[in-house]
Amino acid sequence: MTLATTAFDAPRAIRLSFPGLVVAALCALAAGWIAGGLGEPLSRNPVLVAMLLGLALGNCFTTPEALLPGLDFTKRYLLRLAVILIGFRITINLLLDLGAAPLLIALFELILVLCLVYMVGRKVLRLEPEFALLTAIGCAVCGAAAILSASAILRSRDRNAGIAIALITLAGTVSLLVYPVLFLAGWLPQLDDRTFGIFVGASIFELAQVYGASHAVSEGALNTATLVKLTKVLMLIPLLLVFGVFARRKSGGGGMPIPVPWFVLGFGAVVFLNSHMTLDPRIRGPIIDFDQFLFMMVMAALGLTTRLTRLTEVGGPWRLVAIGGFGVVISAAITYAALGLLSANGTKTASRTTESRMLADPGGRLFSNIGCSKCHVPALLGRQGEVPLYSDLLLHDMGGALDDKILQGDAIGSEWRTTPLIDLHLRTRYLHDNRAESLADAIFAHGGEAKIVRDRFFALNDADRHAILEFAGKL
C-alpha cells in the first residue's frame, strides 16, 4: 500500500470545469439573495438555502453532462480551499482550549456508528454487505469523501458508491436543517455554542454540512465544529489502511493507494499563520465572506448532483430511508449522550465564550437574531484569546441622520466606527455626540447599512424590545 499522490492538469481541468463552476456560483448568489429575504432561521443559513436550491434544481431538471466536471471540481477542490480558509477564524489558543475530550467523543462516535450502522443494515434491513459498509463509513467519518475513498480501496461497484453518496447527502441535509433550529429554540438544553459545535462536528456527515449547521449558530460553534470534523477526516487514514489490509488479503495482490487529506495540512498552516500575526480586518473580512461563498457553491453542487431517484435502486426506498434515518439518529444520540456524560462528570468539553454567554441570555439571542451582532461583534480574537468588545471596529455608513458632513481621512460624514457596547451600563447618554437620551433613541438614529436591523428592532413586540435593551444595559 502507498499514500496516493495524484497528478493534476490544472489548465485542462479549469477549461472543462468552467460551465459547472459558473452554474455553482450563480446558484450560490441566488441562494444568498433568497436567504436574505427569508425569516429566521433560514436567513442565518444561506449555506442550507444553497443546498436546498441545488436539490430542487437537480431533481426538477436533468443536470447537463457539460456541467458535471465543474460541479465535481467544486465538490472536491473548492471544498478543500474553503476548509483551508476556515483557518483564518481559528488560533492555536482556541485549539488548546478545546482540549482532548471533544476529540475522544468524535473517535468514540466514529467507532460505534460504523459498527451499529453496518450491523443494522446487514442483519435487520438485509442490505447488500458492500452497500451497508459504504453507508456506515459515510455516516461514521465524513460523508461522500469517505465513501469514495473506501470504494476505491475495496473495489466496490460504482452503483453502490453512487447510491450511498446520495443517501448520505440527503440524510445529512436533514441534520443541517434541524439541528440549528433545535438549538436556537432551546431544545438542546445542555449545549452552548461551543458544545453545539462539538455536537455537529461529530454527528453531521458532510464537512460542508457541518459548516452550514454551525455557521447558522455562531462563529464559536463554527470554529469548534471545524476542528472536531477535521479530526474525523484524519481518522479516515488509519481506517482505510485497515480496509486496505483486508482487501489485499482477499484479492491476494497489492492494495490500492491510500488517499491522504493534504488540505488538512494547509488548514493547519493557516491556523499557525493566523495565530502569530494580526491580519488587517479589511483583508480578513473579505476572506471570511469568500470562504462562506465557496461553501455555498459546494452545497449547491452537492444538491445539483444528488438524484432522489437513485434511492429506488438498492433494496427498496423504505429500507434506504430506514438506514439513513438510523444513521442520523444514532450519530446524534451517541454524541449528545457523551457530551451529557462528560458534563455531568465535570469534564471540560469547551469553555464559555462571550458569544455563548450572549446566546444564553434571552435578550442576547434576540440581539443576535435581528442582526445586531453582525457589527456589534461580541468579541474579537487577540494574541491571548478573545477580547470582549461588542464591536467589529470597522467603519459603516450610518445614514443621513448621523451625517456630520465632516471628512476624516477616507471616512465620509455618515461613516462611523462601530461603538463598542462593553460597559454600556456606565453611560447616561449615547451616540458619538451624546445626542441620544436612551438606547432606543440611539437605535432609532441608525440608518444606512443598519436600517434593516433598526427596522427589525422596532417591529418586535414591547417585551422583546425590552429584553434586548436590558441585555445591552448589562454589558
TrEMBL record:
- Please tell me whether the keyword Cell membrane is annotated for this protein: yes
Q: Transmembrane residues, as ranges?
A: 16-35, 77-96, 103-121, 133-154, 161-184, 196-214, 226-246, 258-275, 287-306, 318-342
Provide one Gene Ontology cellular component: plasma membrane
Q: Name one Pfam family in it.
A: Cons_hypoth698
Per UniProt, the keywords (alphabetical) are: Cell membrane, Heme, Iron, Membrane, Metal-binding, Transmembrane, Transmembrane helix
Q: Which GO terms describe its molecular function?
A: electron transfer activity; heme binding; metal ion binding
Cytochrome c domain ranges (all copies): 358-475
Q: What is this protein called?
A: Putative sulfate exporter family transporter
Q: Where in the cell?
A: Cell membrane
Q: Which family does it belong to?
A: Belongs to the UPF0324 family.
Domain of life of the organism in this record? Answer: Bacteria
Q: How does this protein sit in the membrane?
A: Multi-pass membrane protein
Q: What is the lineage of its organism?
A: Bacteria, Pseudomonadati, Pseudomonadota, Alphaproteobacteria, Hyphomicrobiales
Species of provenance: Rhizobium tropici
Heme listed as a keyword: yes
UniProt xrefs under Gene3D superfamilies: Cytochrome c-like domain
Q: What is its main location?
A: membrane
